Amino acid sequence: MSRNVKFLVLSALAFLSASALAVTHPSMPEVLAAATPADWRGLDPDNTLYVELPGGRVVIELAPRFAPLHVANIKTLVRARYFDALSIIREQDNYVAQWGDPDNRHPIPAGVGKVAPEFDSPTRADVPFTRLPDGDVYAPEVGFSDGFPAARSPSLHRTWLAHCYGMVGVGRDLDVQSGSGAELYVVIGHAPRHLDRNVALVGRVVKGVELLSALPRGSAEMGFYTKTEVPTPIKSIRLAADVPESERSNLEVIRTDSATFTALIESRRNRPEDFFKVPAGHIDLCNVPIAVREQRPAAAHSS
Amino acid sequence: MSRNVKFLVLSALAFLSASALAVTHPSMPEVLAAATPADWRGLDPDNTLYVELPGGRVVIELAPRFAPLHVANIKTLVRARYFDALSIIREQDNYVAQWGDPDNRHPIPAGVGKVAPEFDSPTRADVPFTRLPDGDVYAPEVGFSDGFPAARSPSLHRTWLAHCYGMVGVGRDLDVQSGSGAELYVVIGHAPRHLDRNVALVGRVVKGVELLSALPRGSAEMGFYTKTEVPTPIKSIRLAADVPESERSNLEVIRTDSATFTALIESRRNRPEDFFKVPAGHIDLCNVPIAVREQRPAAAHSS
User: Fold this and answer.
1) How far is residue B141's CA from residue A74's CA, in Å, rounded to a whole number?
2) Are A284 and B102 an interchain contact pair (Cβ–Cβ within 8 Å)?
3) What is the CATH T-level fold of the domain A45-249, as seen in this structure?
4) Overall average pLDDT of the A37-56 stretch
């Protein structure tokens, strides 16, 4: 069968099966198509970063609830244009893309200093935690909180963000207080969950992660670039609030405490598409997609 | 106890335990340095593929024990030079790189046809299975078999390979018998374990996966390239046995049924390095590195 015919058949069958099962067990596209405007939330421009690379824009949602001190540092650094004209300095396959200022080319702005680790925080009753019942290898409980993949320990009464693909963390030295936010990394491989509770996670890439994950790997140890490799420059990093509205990325993220999100998880746990002969029955925290879409004009002022 | 004091105490304990237990709880480099030649095995040239890309060579170890029919097909395709001058046709972020012949440019060689699915196989008492005691979200038991990440069900008496980073699978249509081996993919993102038992896995990239994972992402649906995007050409795919010895990649892989490999797992489960303040205590199947090294001259004829 030719490729084109193959694709036609695939599309037709996908459509038919999706139609037949629409009510009881919808696919992810069907779940999202049935979502209401209230299932989506806009991004807060005061907690959204635009990393402008030669290939385009990477959009990061910051997590001030989980790492307020580091997020405050990062905002100060961004507003001082600290990151502008620096580079992606490290690209380690199946691990992280990282940027910073190893050659101390830019001064650290006033007010950015050592802060408490913020590797985890007290579990708060007032912050929704949509628990994933599938279990986890690393933590007693996992789920989603405030739009981020998270884990928590009932006995320790602590909650922390989880190192899934696209999560953004603060590079540090051996001293737990050495990570100011001036060096950041993004997970671009299989979730390095052993870093959980050892690093401050400060956000998640909601769009454009492929602009970081497809960069050439550095050939020095730990994926750092050698002197002869040309690192990718960072044109600028801006807070969305500091960018004219007409130039902002108007994205919406699915609310992780909505019934729609729970249905989305089920659509991925047991995929209804005909391709799947043996449903997985379970899903790993970091395999749950936190859906993002372009904001619709009608919803522009409703969030 | 304040958070800072806690961390100091933890650090002190981590430091003390790392120092005191250096012999019993070594780091991964220490584990590998202490390995004996018997802990390593050479690759079988009859079951090793070289995918030659413009950026270099990708080395794939085939898994004939788990997918003998598909591996036989792939060898026939390779020996007919079926893949030569084809392209990487799909590059989907956090998912797969894939190649094949969607335009039917090359004839399928005689002898390559539909085969049984080979998505799993009967659990064999004579094949070692080094069980990982850490648990798993997807399968009742996971571990390593014949050098590959694997899972099994005691009740079903079935074993299957697991979709970890770098694993190589056979693309197929809806029909479970439609995957001949003429279309192959490599996992380049967080383990898509929902594909386990739905696709025939036929091997693992043991070197050069970054030559596939760092390619530009395709912008059509599912990461396929559009007509205007220039896909990466495949110069050739060869069986190592068909390549002159002087041009072979002489690699060795750690034996996954060795005590050294068990020690390696522990070195990653509870990392002794000072950077880690809270040891993970557990490890996910797909986070265990299956170590590969250049074959040492002295060992060249000992495996």
Assistant:
1) 43
2) no
3) Cyclophilin (2.40.100)
4) 98
Whether A178 has its CB under 8 Å from any CB of chain B: the answer is no
Choose among A55, A72, A164, A58: nearest CA to A113: A72
Q: Are the Cβ atoms of B191 and A274 closer than 8 angstroms?
A: no
| The CATH classification of domain B44-115+160-251, taken from the options 3.40.50.720, 3.90.1640.10, 2.40.100.10, 2.60.40.10 | 2.40.100.10
Q: Mean pLDDT score of chain A, rounded to an integer?
A: 91
Q: Give A25's pLDDT tier (boundaries 50, 70, 90).
A: confident
CA distances from A6 to B106, B174, B289 (A): 17, 9, 37
Which of the residues A287, A290, A292 would you substitute to probe the B interface, choosing the one with the greatest number of B C-beta atoms within 10 Å?
A: A287
- With CB atoms and an 8 Å threshold, state whether A119 touches B189: no
User: Could you tell me what percent of chain A has a pLDDT over 70?
Assistant: 89
User: What is the rounded distance in angstroms from the CA atom of residue B177 to the CA atom of residue B118?
Assistant: 9
Chain B within 8 Å of A216 (Cβ-Cβ)? yes
Q: Tell me the C-alpha to C-alpha distance, in Å, between residue B100 and each of A222, B49, B110, B159, B189.
A: 33, 15, 17, 28, 20
Token pair of B293 as six digits: 């090294």
Size of interface A-B (CB pairs under 8 A): 137
The residue ranges of DSSP E strands in chain A, in sequence order, are 40-42, 48-53, 56-62, 87-92, 96-100, 121-122, 130-131, 141-145, 148-153, 158-161, 167-170, 184-187, 201-207, 236-239, 251-254, 292-294
R_g over Cα of chain B: 21
Confidence category of residue B136, pLDDT binned at 50, 70, 90: very high
Where are the domains positioned within chain A?
13-41+253-296, 45-249
Taking a C-beta distance cutoff of 8 angstroms, is the pair A149, A162 a contact? Answer: yes
Provide the edge-to-edge strand list for the sheet that holds B292-294.
B40-42, B251-254, B292-294
**Residue A229 has which token pair?**
């490799």
Q: What stretches of A201-250 adopt beta strand conformation (E)? A: 201-207, 236-239
Which residue's entry shows tokens 């648990």? Answer: B135
Q: How far apart are CA B9 and CA B277, in angstroms?
A: 10
Distance of alpha carbon B299 from alpha carbon B218, whole angstroms:
42
Distance (Å, whole) CA B51 – CA A254 = 40
Rg (CA), chain A: 20
Token duo for residue B38: 């018997």
Helix/strand/coil percentages in chain A, nearest 5: 25, 25, 50
Residue pair A240/A248 in contact (Cβ under 8 Å)? The answer is yes
